[in-house]
């Protein structure tokens, strides 16, 4: 009996959590999972998924980089695709786990992203600075629009060195069924990937 760690995906396939990983998850499995996973450990004013966050990041990227090509926009949309395997772990927990988590996350990201689109992991690494700025801008918007009011400072967002990309995007507090964001993620992926 194989005792290596694995999970079952939405399509019924099993996915090994250690190399060699086997077949990467399909975009349909990824979109389904990301649409069902809540960000902020679920502590938002309404359900808010990783898929919705990914679409927000894409919108920010389109406004901040109007001349960007589809490959760059695809890296932005898919920057959290590996969370379809790991779940969305709050950054403070990632910091507590340290190097072990960093290695696991990087290996899974490479496998998942390159399974989605050849070379996507390399593109993501090459655009890491821009993607991080977009991701932090989304976090800034999410904190403003989706979290309960609080006074504690966030080192990453309240640092004098951080300035969110200019955007007038607002997340409205309306409910959206999770399948809406599954469909949005798939629509954007297929549009950008060709």
The radius of gyration is 17 Å
Q: Quick one: overall form?
A: globular
Mean pLDDT: 95
Give the N-terminus to C-terminus distance in angstroms.
Answer: 41 Å
Largest sheet: 2 strands, antiparallel
Helix-strand makeup class: mainly alpha
State the helix count: 10
Could you explain the architecture of this structure?
A hairpin with a 5-residue loop joins strand 1 (6-8) and strand 2. The model has no long low-confidence stretch (mean pLDDT 95). The chain has 194 residues and is mainly α. The longest helix is centred in the C-terminal third of the chain and has 19 residues, at 128-146. The chain has helices at residues 27-36, 50-64, 70-77, 83-86, 91-97, 99-116, 120-126, 128-146, 155-158, 178-193, and strands at residues 6-8, 14-16. It is globular, with a radius of gyration of 17 Å. The chain has a two-stranded antiparallel sheet with strand order 1-2. The chain is built from ten helices and two strands; from the N terminus they run ββαααααααααα.
Topology, pairings included?
Layout: E1 6-8, E2 14-16, H1 27-36, H2 50-64, H3 70-77, H4 83-86, H5 91-97, H6 99-116, H7 120-126, H8 128-146, H9 155-158, H10 178-193
Helix pairs in contact: 1-10, 2-3, 2-8, 2-10, 3-7, 3-10
């Amino acid at each position: 009996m194989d005792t290596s760690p694995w999970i079952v995906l939405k399509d019924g396939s099993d996915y090994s959590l250690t190399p060699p990983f086997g077949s990467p998850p399909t975009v349909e499995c990824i979109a389904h999972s990301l649409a069902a996973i809540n960000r902020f450990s679920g502590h938002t004013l309404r359900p808010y998924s990783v898929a919705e966050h990914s679409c927000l990041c894409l919108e920010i990227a389109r406004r901040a980089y109007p001349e960007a090509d589809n490959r760059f926009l695809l890296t932005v949309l898919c920057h959290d695709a590996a969370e379809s395997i790991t779940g969305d772990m709050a950054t403070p927990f990632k910091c507590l786990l340290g190097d072990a988590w960093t290695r696991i996350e990087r290996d899974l990201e490479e496998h998942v992203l390159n399974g989605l689109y050849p070379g996507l992991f390399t593109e993501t690494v090459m655009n890491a600075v821009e993607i991080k700025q977009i991701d932090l801008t989304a976090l800034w918007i999410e904190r403003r629009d989706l979290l309960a009011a609080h006074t504690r400072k966030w080192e990453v967002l309240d640092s004098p060195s951080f300035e969110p990309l200019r955007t007038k995007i607002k997340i409205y507090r309306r409910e959206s069924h999770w399948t809406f964001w599954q469909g949005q993620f798939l629509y954007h992926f297929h549009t950008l990937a060709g």
